[in-house]
Design goal:
Shape: globular
Mean pLDDT: 91
Helix content: over 70%
Order of helices and strands: HHHHHHHHHHHHHHHHEEHHH
Distance between the termini: 42 Å
Strand order of the largest sheet: 1-2
């Protein structure tokens, strides 16, 4: 049942930048370009785009549609839309809320490292051309429990203060400023990187197709990236969809978000890898290696301190949009289901994340010896959310839309009650959500569990 007094996005541009802010994250800045480079360049991009069109985008459309139809949080949405007597579907919303909390627990720690490195870059304390020295500096920071917790709490304070302001005055207002700034900073870095001698080698790394590298493992990598990259299966798109305007063209908007998200990733690659190759460094993946190689790369170029500061600033901006969408999932549940004020729900969520975040933040120091199934707390939270909760949530959403909600309802909602002439497209989306996407996500789940 729609709630007329709910907060929501106020413009088409607001919808676009807020949703894009959710999809763009730390992975865009390093992981995506790296995976593209080592898995066949342009060939991998083609596989990724195919996987996105067949799996990621249809599920994003379906999840957003459920949110706008129900005009409710991730739990209440399934209660509202499920047939009478089948309220068990609301477990999808609860799984999404749990996944959001677990991701925030370790993601806020990584964002804290980024915030710390803005200061370090600006003051020149990480100005070194030796990746080994940079690695020692990074290791000293993450192994310091006071520093690890302090920067995580700074991140939570920043994002918490924004989420308290609401959807229009908080999420939309901030992302309207930050997302364009993100593109501007990326373009500045791209312009500088492309002027470096030997920059063409970095572009070759990214864009020269090597179809011989496209193996079944590469296809699985692209498939998983297409699912995880768009923030699916954890209630974020459903929650944001509940704030969409009634006349928003969901298939068009989500496609624009997907293409803009891809553009951010490719621009990041253009900004980073020409510089990496120009100064003779080896590209490497993983969030921690950003803090080991990037200082050496940018210190090697003229004006390196400025450009390194810009890099970590744009990385921080990328983290804010993603964290806001993750926070909004439990905040909306607490505010709507338990009648908490926006401020109270936001504070409760931030405190819960801070509590979960302590063992994740201390997993490199005081809690380093605390493991479960051979994983420290940081890696355990990542495994549970990324390898179990998100894929299972994605499969269940596909099953709900494809086998319970049905094609007639999907046609009505995605055509905006017949106002949009997109019936053929909706039928294609329905087939993909009903058959193709759940099978593909099941493969992602089995691969994540090391069963295939």
């Amino acid at each position: 049942m729609a709630q007329s007094n709910r907060d929501g996005f106020t413009s088409t541009f607001g919808v676009l930048v807020a949703t894009l802010g959710s999809a763009v994250g730390l992975g865009n800045i390093w992981k995506f370009p790296f995976l593209t480079g080592v898995n066949g360049g342009a060939g991998f991009l083609l596989v990724y785009l195919a996987a996105t069109m067949l799996v990621g985008l249809p599920l994003m459309i379906a999840e957003t549609m459920l949110g706008r139809t129900a005009r409710a949080n991730a739990v209440t949405a399934f209660e509202t839309l499920a047939p009478r007597g089948k309220a068990g579907w609301k477990c999808i919303g609860w799984m999404g809320a749990l996944a959001s909390l677990l991701i925030l627990a370790f993601y806020s720690e990584v964002a804290g490292w980024v915030y710390a490195y803005i200061v370090k870059a600006a003051t020149g304390t990480i100005a070194t051309t030796d990746p080994k020295v940079a690695a020692q500096t990074f290791g000293a920071m993450v192994s310091d429990p006071v520093s690890a917790l302090a920067w995580q709490w700074v991140v939570l304070a920043v994002t918490g203060s924004i989420i308290m302001l609401g959807v229009a005055k908080g999420i939309e207002a901030v992302t309207r400023k930050l997302v364009p700034l993100l593109f501007i900073l990326l373009l500045v870095l791209c312009a500088r990187s492309l002027t470096l001698p030997g920059a063409s080698q970095g572009l070759t790394f990214l864009f020269q197709p090597d179809f011989a590298k496209i193996t079944p493992v590469v296809v699985l990598t692209a498939l998983g990236l297409a699912f995880f990259k768009l923030s699916l299966g954890m209630g974020t798109m459903l929650t944001y969809g509940s704030y969409f305007r009634d006349n928003q063209d969901i298939p068009v908007t989500t496609t624009r978000v997907m293409l803009a998200d891809l553009s951010v990733s490719l621009l990041a690659g253009i900004a980073i890898f020409p510089a990496v190759f120009a100064f003779g460094f080896e590209p490497a993946a993983g969030p921690s290696l950003v803090f080991m190689i990037i200082p050496a790369v940018f210190t090697s170029m003229p004006g390196g301190r400025l450009f390194m500061t810009i890099f970590f600033a744009l990385t921080a901006i990328a983290s804010i949009g993603a964290m806001l969408s993750l926070l909004e999932v439990p905040v909306a549940i607490l505010a709507e289901r338990y009648k908490m004020s926006r401020k109270g729900a936001s504070l409760a969520t931030i405190l819960a994340v801070a509590l979960f975040g302590v063992p994740a933040a201390l997993s490199q120091s005081l809690a380093a010896k605390i493991t479960l199934f051979g994983l420290n707390t940081f890696d355990l939270f990542d495994f549970l959310s990324s390898n179990i909760l998100m894929p299972v949530g994605g499969i269940l959403i596909c099953l709900f839309v494809g086998w319970v909600y049905g094609l007639p309802n999907l046609e009505r909602r995605l055509s905006n009650e017949g106002q949009l002439a997109n019936r053929a497209l909706i039928r294609v989306i329905f087939i993909l959500v009903r058959y193709v996407a759940p099978a593909a996500i099941a493969i992602i789940l089995l691969n994540g569990l090391k069963l295939i």
